Amino acid sequence: MVIADEQEIDPTEQAFVSALIACSPELAQTITVARAFRAMVRGQRAGELDNWLSTANGTPLTGFAIGLKRDLAAVRAALSLPWSTGPVEGQISRLKTIKRMMNGRGSFDLLRHRVLEAA
Question: What is the pTM of this model?
Answer without folding.
Answer: 0.70
